[in-house]
Design brief:
alpha+beta, 8-stranded antiparallel β-sheet, 17 helices, about 25% strand, globular, binds adenosine-5'-diphosphate
């Protein structure tokens, strides 16, 4: 199991935006050199400016640049990079990429391709971890364990599981390829539409069927394995606040978590990771009932977007751990040396319009002023004022992370930080997030995945029309501005 040490000197970050910046910061702190890759529209992006070297890898669409394995490997070769950090998204969970790096003698900072392959498929993952004793959501992978040969067998499985059920694409991710079905009459339509989405998004139509849990919470465990056979858990994150099965707010630790349940979930996660010989940072996602019972949903074989809340409560740098483990070192700490300090919350600041169904927004960031960073407030971002949010990539502007001794104190910090956040030029969700952290159910930690839906009335108050006087004053100001400009 144990590997010879592979010192890392120069890291190519095969990503962009906030995660590329965040990874490079740690590399520099550890005295490692960095290489950025960039598409045509990212030529002047912060991650390019921060890197020691930068390589152009093609046009804006990711499938012609950030997703092209050969271009990334060529960039490694041209710059002498001896390791690649894939960030999240893009090639981070692509086992062919991990294999190709290995074959080229470049250290892939992530798990081995074998673990990614097993965990990349929801059906394979369910099989593997349940064999290791980790509880999985009651459900059915199909007669051969890899989907249903015909609609009849799928319908029969749904009836056996009992409605409501959730149809999931085996290759799914990012909340795509999922259909909840309440009644058997609706099953066939839902199955057809799930398969269509699965085929177009993932090129794979296989589905599995799970019991659709009511008012569940999403609680995930951060795990870390090394190549010496050690594996620990760095506690949990509660990511129950979601819209359309995508995370909006994350926090650590999970409110209401008992010491016993934490240990049980931590151990279940470690067992799941060990079942695939996991090396590096990973996240085991569980869905939990309000009574505390929990089931494995999936494992993400990379650093998660929400990893900073774990860093804030443990005082650790997870990218540093990733680099150490990839270089063949043992984990820096044992389970009994890990502890939770305080409470952290993260909000994802997006260029999107909450009033238009969270439609992504594009355009120039005319004014961007985040709250000041200090020991309580951290802002992870990959854009600056004057940059443009393009339609080519995820429209995340930043992650706002706060920490304090208690959840209430952290929540107060979050409210204050959101009130200070200024974004002008693109539609954004800052006001929506301010309302969200203010709703009583969130403040009281009455969490489940339907919180946003239930709080519609508070979160989307009817817009009061702008009074005529305000429009007149705005028009007057604009005329004055034009007159002043013309006078120059
Ligand atoms: P993805 O890979 O697309 O992120 P997941 O399997 O991680 O999909 O599920 C995403 C979200 O969907 C979960 O966080 C949860 O809110 C919801 N979900 C998934 N499975 C179930 C289930 N069996 N019952 C209820 N909600 C579920």
């Amino acid at each position: 199991m144990s590997q010879p040490p592979r010192p890392i000197r120069r890291v190519l970050v095969a990503n962009r935006g906030e995660i590329a910046v965040r990874v490079m910061r740690t590399c520099h702190e550890l005295g490692k050199e960095t290489v950025a890759v960039y598409s045509d529209v990212d030529r002047a992006a912060p991650h390019v400016q921060l890197a020691g070297q930068a390589v152009a890898i093609g046009p804006a669409p990711a499938r012609e640049s950030y997703l092209v394995i050969d271009k990334i490997l060529a960039a490694c070769k041209a710059t002498g990079a001896d390791a690649v950090h894939p960030g999240y998204g893009f090639l981070s969970e692509n086992e062919d990429f991990a294999d190709a790096c290995e074959a080229a003698g470049i250290t892939f900072i992530g798990p081995r391709a074998h673990a990614m392959r097993l965990m990349g498929s929801k059906t394979e993952a369910r099989k593997t971890v349940s064999a290791a004793g980790t509880p999985v959501v009651p459900g059915d992978n199909g007669p051969e364990g890899n989907g249903f040969p015909d609609v009849g067998s799928a319908q029969a499985a749904a009836a056996r599981i009992g409605y409501p059920v959730l149809i999931k694409a085996a290759a799914g991710g990012g909340g795509k390829g999922m259909r909840a079905v309440d009644r058997s009459e609706d099953f066939l339509d839902a199955l057809a539409s799930c398969k269509r989405e699965a085929a177009s998004s993932f090129g794979d139509q296989h589905v599995l069927i799970e019991k659709y849990l009511q008012r569940p919470r999403h609680i995930e465990i951060q795990v870390f394995g090394d190549s010496h056979g050690n594996c620990v858990y760095l506690f949990e994150r509660d990511c129950s606040v979601q819209r359309r099965h995508q995370k909006v707010l994350e926090e650590a630790p999970a409110p209401g978590m008992t010491r016993e349940r934490r240990a049980a979930m931590g151990q279940a996660a470690v067992d799941a990771a060990k079942a695939v010989g996991y090396v590096g940072a990973g996240t085991v996602e569980f869905i939990a009932n309000q009574d505390g019972s929990f089931y494995f949903m999936e494992m993400n074989t990379r650093l998660q977007v929400e990893h900073p809340v774990t860093e804030m409560i443990t005082g650790l740098d997870l990218v540093e751990w990733q680099l150490r483990v990839a270089a063949g070192e043992a984990l820096p700490l044992r389970q009994e040396q890990l502890a939770i300090d305080g409470h952290a919350l993260e909000a994802r600041i997006y260029a999107e319009d909450p009033d238009k169904g969270f439609l992504p927004s594009t355009g120039k960031l005319l004014h961007l002023s985040p709250p000041a960073e200090n020991e309580h407030v951290r802002v992870d971002t990959g854009v600056e004022q004057g940059d443009t949010i393009t339609p080519h990539y995820d429209p995340m502007i930043a992650k706002l992370i706060v920490w304090d001794r208690t959840r209430d104190a952290a929540l107060a910090r979050m409210r204050q930080a959101l009130a200070q956040y200024r974004v002008v030029g693109v539609a954004n969700n800052v006001e929506f997030l301010s309302r969200l952290v203010g709703v009583p159910s969130f403040a009281q930690a009455d969490l489940d995945t339907a919180l946003i839906e239930r709080e519609q009335a508070n979160l989307f108050p009817p817009k009061s029309p702008v009074p005529d006087e305000v429009c007149l004053l705005a028009a007057l100001a604009e005329l004055q501005r034009e007159a002043a400009a013309a006078a120059h």
